[in-house]
Structures are given as structure tokens and as C-alpha cells.
Write a structure and sequence with these properties.
The structure holds two protein chains of two kinds.
Chain A: H1 2-22, H2 26-46, H3 50-75, H4 87-110, H5 124-131, H6 140-170
Helix pairs in contact in A: 1-2, 2-3
Chain B: H1 7-27, H2 31-56, H3 62-92
Helix pairs in contact in B: 1-2, 2-3
The chains are: A mainly alpha, B mainly alpha.
């Protein structure tokens, strides 16, 4: 049963990923990307990492996609299709990526992974304790660095948006 | 881990999504659609971290937490990049990479 669900999610993700990079309507492309994100959240739920699935759904499917949609509406004329890439460029890119897929899959299937069979789900309490633990297996330093990074990104976005306005009024 | 699904199958899915993202990044000419391809790449890498963590070292949490950090960094990156792109659009009135030669008038 889980196998069938996994295959359905995987096929949905791959098909929508391909459609998302080939669609010439940018609004459709972003909605296809949303389905890829949701499929990934489904895999996280199946793999028993509920916190990450929830974060994936709220941050990616909820936040980032909405950010993209608003900026597309600010920037693009939605009715106009995107430029077609050149035929030669398409062929070269397809050849190179299929070469990369071949090499990576060969490396993966060549390696002998020792799978540990264990039915243990990662609880949110465990994640929280690991994030705020400063002993062994603790992640408090990256956690704090991430919080500083988010603050810096917020300030940076405000500064970038503001510098233009100042220039515009001084003209 | 998922019952009846081996690590190879999930790694195959993430490999395919990664290279679809690379394909989009190479062929697209619009800045926002290139950024969307980067999102695909980041997502597939996050999936790899979680899967290897869950299948090979289920006692530890490192991989899962690192994909959490990847998601946070991707959110910051997207916000900044979209701010720059919107600013650039006001200057140049285009998002085509061929027409963007300058970031400052």
C-alpha cells in the first residue's frame, strides 16, 4: 500500500517538475511547482518526519509560492507567454542533463547502502530538544546563525526596496 | 523509512528532480523562472538529506535538521532575490537575461 502511494507521489512530482520547467505560461509554471512542493511534503509525512512535512507545507507551499505569485503579478504581463529557448540550446541541455542523470544513477545503484530497518518516527519534541541543545548532537549554533541570517535577509530586503525609492524622489 | 520502498527508489526520484531543475536553469531565460528551477534543486537536495538520515542513521537527527536549515535559507534567498528582481525590473523594464546587462544606471 505504502509502495503504491509512494509511486503515485513520485510520478506526480516528476511530471509536474517537468511541466514546471517547460510551461510557457509563468503562472501555470508556479502552480505546477506548488504541486511538486506538496508531493515532497507527502514524502516527508510518509517517512515519519512530521515536523519537516509541516514546515515544508507552511514555508514552501504557503510562503514562498505566494511570494512568487505576488512578484509575478507585480512584474510580468501574465497573458504573454515566455520566450521559447533556442532549439540547439534545448538539445544541448537535454543531452547534458541526461548524461548527469545517468552518471548519478550509476553511482547510486553501484553503491551498496546498508539500510537499517527501524520503525521510529521523529517526534517534534525530539527535534526541539536537538535544536536547543548545546551539548553533543546539539544544534544551537546553526539555529542561532539561521536566526541572524533571517534577520539580515529581512533588513537587506527592506534596504534594497528602499534605495530605489530614494533615488526616484531625488530625480 | 517507508515500508516496501528502498533507498534507491527515493534517491532516483530526487536525482530526477535535481536534473530537471538543472535543465530548467539552463534553458529558461526569465529571471523568475530560473529562480523557480533553483527551488527544485534545493528541494531535491533537502529530500536527499532526510532520506539518507532516515534510512541509514535513524538514531541521529542531523540530516533532517539540515534540511530544515536548507528550507530557512531558501526562504531568505527567495525573499532577497525577488526584491532585487523587482527593483531591476523597475530599472530595465524586462526580466530577460539577454537584456539585463547592468544593475546600476
Amino acid at each position: 500500500m505504502e509502495r503504491i502511494i509512494f509511486y503515485v507521489i513520485a510520478i506526480i512530482m516528476i511530471v509536474f517538475a517537468v511541466m514546471s520547467v517547460t510551461s510557457r505560461n509563468i503562472m501555470r509554471a508556479i502552480v505546477y511547482l506548488l504541486f511538486v512542493m506538496l508531493g515532497l511534503a507527502g514524502i516527508y509525512f510518509m517517512i515519519d518526519f512530521f515536523f519537516l512535512g509541516a514546515v515544508q507545507m507552511t514555508v514552501y507551499a504557503g510562503g514562498i509560492i505566494i511570494l512568487y505569485i505576488t512578484s509575478i503579478m507585480l512584474v510580468e504581463r501574465i497573458g504573454e507567454p515566455l520566450d521559447k529557448p533556442k532549439q540547439l540550446q534545448l538539445i544541448i541541455a537535454a543531452a547534458l542533463t541526461s548524461l548527469g542523470i545517468g552518471a548519478t544513477l550509476f553511482a547510486i545503484y553501484d553503491y551498496d547502502f546498508v539500510e537499517v530497518t527501524q520503525e521510529k518516527s521523529t517526534t517534534i519534541a525530539e527535534v526541539g530538544r536537538a535544536l536547543l541543545n548545546y551539548g553533543d548532537n546539539g544544534f544551537i549554533l546553526p539555529f542561532e546563525v539561521i536566526s541572524m541570517l533571517l534577520l539580515a535577509a529581512m533588513v537587506g530586503a527592506i534596504v534594497i526596496a528602499k534605495s530605489y525609492n530614494k533615488k526616484e524622489t531625488s530625480k | 523509512m517507508i515500508l516496501g520502498v528502498s533507498i534507491y527508489e527515493i534517491l532516483t526520484v530526487s536525482t530526477l528532480i535535481f536534473f530537471i531543475g538543472v535543465f530548467g536553469f539552463v534553458t529558461r531565460k526569465n529571471l523568475i523562472s530560473m529562480l523557480m528551477s533553483v527551488e527544485l534543486i534545493l528541494n531535491s537536495v533537502a529530500l536527499n538529506f532526510v532520506v539518507i538520515n532516515k534510512y541509514l542513521f535513524p538514531e541521529q537527527l542531523d540530516g533532517g535538521l539540515f534540511s530544515l536549515f536548507i528550507i530557512a535559507i531558501a526562504a531568505a534567498e527567495t525573499a532577497l532575490a525577488l526584491a532585487i528582481i523587482i527593483n531591476l525590473y523597475r530599472l530595465v523594464m524586462s526580466l530577460n537575461t539577454d537584456k539585463l546587462e547592468t544593475m546600476k544606471n
